[in-house]
Amino acid sequence: MTDLFHAETTAKPILTREGRRALAARADRLRDVTLPQLLALRGDPDEHDASVDDDHQRATQELSRLSALLVHARTVESTPDDPRVVEVGEAVTVALADGRVERYLLVDAPEATLGGMRVTAGSPLGQAVLGRQIGDQVEVRAPGGSYRCRVLSAERPDPTAGAGEVSQR
Fold first, then answer.
1. Are 129 and 69 in contact (CB under 8 A)?
2. What is the CATH number of the domain that holds 104?
3. Which of the listed residues 40, 46, 88, 143 has the most CB atoms within 10 Å of its CB?
């Protein structure tokens, strides 16, 4: 199992407020539902087999990883450090050369597993846009081949709004 907390960087991971809430909910579910269910199965001789022990070990490790992540991670501020520069925790809109417009939430690796249109800062697109300014043309060196896109906008999600809503800048 890859330890996403330590694999990508030794710096403190950064989480969006939504990501922190979702990961905390996942940890709560593991602690309050999954692990007690697995413990009950371990105590039932009719249901207990090696797979239950394996599932219990994986769930315990995941809870430990999530707990450490939530203790050590920083939460992105609601206001960007520099409103002209793309930062982790922002919804980034890019225009591709073929005219398509795509929007992604730029996150640290631990939050990428939450789904949606999340892209990690360490991915080819994330590396290309991180630290760039609105209007910059960037080259993305992806495994399937390089492509160019223009950074159209970067907005910080509004912590007081519903999930996915952002504050335009």
1. no
2. 3.10.50.30
3. 88
- Contacts of residue 65, defined as CB under 8 A and 6 or more positions apart, other chains included, come to 3, 4, 5
pTM of the model: 0.71
Per the structure, the count of domains in the chain is 2
User: Is residue 166 included in any domain, yes or no?
Assistant: no
Q: Give counts: helices (H), strands (E), the chain.
A: 6, 8
Residue 34, phi then psi, degrees to nearest 5 = -65, -55
Spell out the per-residue pLDDT of the chain, length 169, in tens. Answer: 344 444 444 578 888 888 899 999 999 999 999 999 998 888 777 766 788 889 999 999 999 999 999 999 988 876 556 778 899 999 999 999 999 999 999 999 989 888 888 999 999 999 999 999 999 999 999 999 999 999 999 988 765 554 444 433 3
Query: What does the CA dihedral 125, 128, 129, 132 come to, rounded to 10 degrees?
Result: 180
CA atoms of 42 and 58, how far apart (whole Å): 14
Q: If you search the block for the tokens 């009719």, which residue do you land on? A: 46
